């Protein structure tokens, strides 16, 4: 199986974002990619600042059955594609991800964990659940969700062997480094990716925005991480595609052959 994580910038113009998504999907399909994960806020971009709309305004909101999502599903064909957007539902707005195939929606996730600065723009989701796809059982997380070990652990316990993590993860606003690779948020972004893959013994596909939106400067660093916590492919800070080829089920089984973290938990001791 070929899995890939996109590093790219997506702004407020939904039509332009959609055109870019279709072009990236077409290129990925030509390279035999089976699972393609885009960053958080693929359609319409992320916030320009945490805590206020700022000069960039709020991202446009789309319904869960928006025609833009149908276009991506049509472009996907046999490739499974995960994208992020600001979802409008029941009078509220969510930071959402949707997993699409040629036949339509395969799974959805609404971001559960929110930094304080997101509260004016998004309501919080309330669950983590894996879902079945032609590639096997997959789970999705968005951005800050991966900071909390329970998020990924819930998906792994629900049978996910692949976790797609869609991010718009910026550099530090309070302690800026002269270079992105020196930024403390850059270090944490990589640390969480590798730790969540290793502690749950799953394949981790992490996509992130690049460029800037308002005061936020995004890190890139999209990557594919194996179930032992080893980085199999990455983009660093620039736009690109982190692509790795592996047998997901075999790699997960091998990682769990001697030490099976899920089986060997002691939930009664954790309370």
From TrEMBL:
GO MF, one annotated term: hydrolase activity, acting on carbon-nitrogen (but not peptide) bonds, in linear amides
InterPro entries, alphabetized: Aliph_Amidase/BUP, C-N_Hydrolase, C-N_Hydrolase_sf
Keyword Cell division listed: no
Taxonomic superkingdom: Bacteria
Cross-referenced Gene3D superfamilies: Carbon-nitrogen hydrolase (3.60.110.10)
Transmembrane segments: none
Pfam families on file: CN_hydrolase
Keywords: Hydrolase
Protein name in UniProt: Putative amidohydrolase
């Amino acid at each position: 199986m070929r899995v890939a994580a996109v590093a790219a910038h997506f702004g407020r113009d939904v039509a332009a974002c959609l055109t870019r998504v279709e072009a990236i999907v077409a290129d990925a399909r030509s390279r035999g990619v089976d699972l393609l994960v885009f960053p958080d806020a693929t359609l319409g971009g992320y916030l320009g600042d945490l805590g206020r709309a700022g000069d960039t305004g709020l991202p446009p909101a789309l319904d869960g059955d928006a025609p833009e999502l149908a276009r991506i599903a049509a472009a996907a064909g046999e490739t499974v594609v995960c994208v992020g957007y600001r979802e409008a539902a029941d009078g509220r707005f969510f930071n959402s991800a949707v997993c699409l195939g040629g036949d339509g929606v395969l799974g959805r996730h609404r971001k559960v964990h929110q930094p304080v600065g997101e509260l004016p723009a998004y309501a919080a989701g309330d669950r983590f659940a894996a879902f079945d796809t032609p590639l096997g059982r997959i789970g999705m997380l968005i951005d800050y969700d991966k900071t909390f070990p329970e998020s990924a652990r819930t998906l792994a316990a629900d049978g996910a062997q692949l976790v797609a993590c869609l991010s718009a993860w910026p550099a530090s606003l309070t302690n800026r480094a002269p270079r992105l690779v020196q930024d403390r948020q850059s270090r944490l972004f990589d640390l969480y990716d590798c730790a969540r893959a290793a502690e749950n013994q799953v394949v981790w596909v992490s996509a992130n925005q690049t460029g800037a939106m308002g005061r936020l400067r995004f890190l890139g660093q999209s990557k594919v991480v194996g179930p032992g916590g080893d980085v199999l492919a990455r983009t660093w800070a620039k736009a690109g595609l982190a692509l790795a080829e592996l047998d997901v089920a075999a790699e997960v089984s091998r990682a769990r052959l001697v030490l099976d973290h899920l089986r060997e938990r002691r939930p009664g001791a954790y309370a």
